[in-house]
Amino acid sequence: MGVNVPIENRDILQTKTQLKKERFRLFVRRFLNNRLALIGSSIMIFLLLFVSFSLLFMNSSPLEIDPANRLHAPSSEHWFGTDTFGRDLFSRVVHGGFVSLAVGFSATIITAIIGMIIGLYASYYKFLDHILMRICDGLLAFPDVLLAIAITAVLGPRPINVVIAITVVKIPTMARIVRSSALVIKEQTYIEALKAQGASSWRTLWMHIAPNTLSPYIVQITNVFASAIILEAGLSFLGAGVPAPEPSWGNILYDGKVVIFNAWWMTFFPGVFIVLSVLGLNLFGDGLRDLLDPHTNKANK
User: Which residues 6+ apart lie within 8 Å of 195 measured at CB?
Assistant: First the structure.
């Protein structure tokens, strides 16, 4: 037997559904009218599709050495030329892009989750606030690159260790952003009403405070993703990131710096992909900020 829903409740549910659809349509319309978000997302979609389809249909190996064809300029056979060992640079850039993007994405997701947890509980419990924020202050006292190099030097130059290093470096910033937003939201009247009604700390934090911190947090996540790509490339360039001969954009740049005047393509192509990925993420983040922040002028146009 079906459950009879009162007409009033049915009307309320239909109204809520219509409101959600209208909000989604409005967000899509504003997104399509926002040049920064549209250009940034287009760049990132292009890079992801380029790397994905190239990996699927590529025949050459990024590790295959051919000394007879070393330092050949870009041609129909080798689209991006060859490196100092005769390896196909197009294959290495594509595989390196997969490694760099995977490392950056993994570090960003882990950082976002841990940063959210630390920021929320630090804002809600004063004793945790003193402990966690002092640890964050200590980590922020070190430059990002130096701290990441120190961590990878201890753990060893491997992709998983690069993810750990980037995560440790970026967590304090993310935790502070969540904490600052949560401290303001915690003082709102409806949060006090929830506490008065006996709502648990978990429900208050994760069902009511956390969702209201997402707008600035999502924007910061895109910035962390861009920073993670740059940091991974820097670590690999310095020999503390993805170890050779496994390709990444950073160690391809390192291989090309010795022959930069004789083989410009070895630094040009990985450099272009690093610039495009960081530019796309930054533009996308700026566009999201305009969309999610109702106080910006661009969002109100």
Answer: 204
The answer to whether residues 284 and 37 touch, using CB atoms and an 8 Å cutoff, is yes
Q: Provide the domain count of the chain.
A: 1
pLDDT at 229: 93
CB 86 within 8 A of CB 68: yes
Other C-beta atoms closer than 10 Å to the C-beta of 103 total 26
Q: What would the two tokens of residue 23 be?
A: 């909000």
**Up-side HSE of residue 253: CA atoms within 13 Å toward CB?**
24
Distance CA 209, CA 222 (A): 21
Distance of CA 167 to the CA centre of its chain: 11
What residues make up the domain containing 196? 90-300
E-state strands within the chain: none
Give 247-264 pLDDT, tens digit per residue.
899 999 998 888 888 889
- Looking up tokens 């670590």 gives 235
CA distance 83 to 254: 11
Supply the CATH number for residue 185's domain: 1.10.3720.10
User: Backbone phi, then psi, for 248, in 5-degree steps?
Assistant: -150, 160
Tell me, what's the pLDDT at 22? 76
Place of tokens 């979609």: 45
- CA angle 81–83–89, rounded 5-degree value: 50
